[in-house]
């Protein structure tokens, strides 16, 4: 008789009509019926990405789209700037290294955002003698809850020959990212975050500047080859069998999002984030990223004497409320409450309520209900 | 008020309990709850693959698993034998070429099966001076309906240093493939065929001999890196966020298949194939692969004066019965009726009935009901 609540930064909860769409009788993908769905989702994705460029659907996790960005833009021997301020920034470095691309790493203290000027300096004076051909960044670093100023970075990269690549797996469709207006050449995302779908689909957008690089890139590729994807897209098709039920679910999610409108979606995420942050502070807890906190996930330091891992486990296994623990070097030291996708105020209230309960049981001293009250005050504004 | 019937070689129809499983509230993948599912599906996959080796789940279409086989087993500059008797055999050649591997092509006439002795000859006397390190084959060539004698090929490859790789995307869990007993080192498959799932998952099995190659292989890779997959599998995890709802659906499909038993599943597929073939012959139609027809899909030549594409379109768009047309050089010349996965005798009856109706409308001369009667006779045996 226990209810389950999901407040994790991917997967995020699935709206009932999106969940139901997956269960409909399957249709074949090379039919006019499925082509009509593809046409609709392709348009919907351009709306969400705020681009007039092509957005490709890949059947993979978000990492597949990150790999697609690297192998389609670059050649072995190239160099690229990788901004690393968390686990997902590290992934760009690993990907570049796997394909023989020299990563010019800008190391950012975990919990802090990169200073865009550092990117300017690195572009002007790289460590190796190679001119970096791409700048790989992360919109919302899920592991630390930090948001990056993509708009400012876009202005800097636009003046160079390099392309700007943004991992917006966490964040797209939840916080503002003006792909075209901000000069984002390649934006990658995944289905299980702001788009309110199960994992299994990834997305990648491409600017005209990106296509100049794509046409010259020599990294080996096949499954993630965007030239093949482009050829298919131009006839409203996919190069390989797509995850049909997830694409149909995507069409439902995109309908909801278009109905809501991007401005409302971004406002809702900010409200959820503000309430969560206020609640944490009211409970005497310390935010892991006090100055650059993203609106999709809030990382909170486990207070002295409280094991963050145990807190997360108890909330999940005893009370059915799943939040996320810390990853890599933050394991046990932080917990993370996501407020992304199909989340509204009462989900946040449930999450805070459960957090208060377990913190109290674990012996942490605070005024019971203080977090809830702080959130309520935000929601009543 | 029209009902839709799916008789295509992927996707295949989804059983109701498998479809429903996708729509359940989503759970997080790094939880004991999901680990229990992963453990169960990993065991179920070993059962279906008839192997004691590791079987990895990838979030991709089947082509992703084919790429995983190539990049994990080989290094640029290697050579490999590719058996090409259809569109999917061609894919092995394209994949090898994309990664700098010289394909030693054994060209087989479309509609015929490869003679295993040709593989022996090619292994002993390759065209290039390189010793082929792998033999890439196709269990059931979906584009032509041809079945390959993997058991015989296994005996030949086993005596060499090369590994045998089988594309069993079409066929696994539908016709017999004894991965371990027949010496199949790497077997790849997809979710939307014999496993009765939507597309979106791919699978790859690995023998001990395969791991010797994997440990030495130098092709670049990241998303499809089996060493990372192995590390994750050993702690009942996946290296990247898996397609959670599809994995949960997989656990339902595997339960059904274990309950049925492999022998019964294979017998059922043979019965459906026999009935389909008998019906086509009774209608005076010619099978595209009269001697090596697989039990998962039957390719039939469009009779003189009948446009195969128009036949398929009319069946689908006017009557709701979706079969497949011909691919590549067979476009318009053949149609293909699949009898794979969640298909039983009355699905075949519906398919034949609709085919008879449309053939009659298109002016083809035959005795109405002759196909149905021939199928009935097989089903009554």
Category by helix and strand content of chain A: alpha/beta
The averaged pLDDT of chain A comes out at 97
Helix content of chain A: 40-55%
- Give unreliable regions of chain A as ranges: none
How many individual helices of chain A? 13
The total beta strand count of chain A reads: 15
CATH class of the largest domain in chain A: Alpha Beta
Question: Could you describe the largest sheet of chain A, including whether it forms a barrel?
Answer: 7 strands, mixed
Greatest interface and its participating residue counts: A-B, 55 and 55 residues
The arrangement of helices and strands of chain A along the chain is EHHEHEHEHEEEHEEEHHHHEEHEEEHH
Computed over alpha carbons, the radius of gyration of chain A is 21 Å
Backbone shape of chain A: globular
Please report the distance between the alpha carbons of the first and last residues of chain A: 35 Å
CATH superfamily of the largest domain in chain A: Type I PLP-dependent aspartate aminotransferase-like (Major domain)
CATH topology group of the largest domain in chain A: Aspartate Aminotransferase, domain 2
Task: Please tell me the total number of domains of chain A.
Answer: 2
* Name given to the CATH architecture of the largest domain in chain A: 3-Layer(aba) Sandwich
- Spatial strand arrangement across the major sheet of chain A: 2-10-9-8-5-3-4
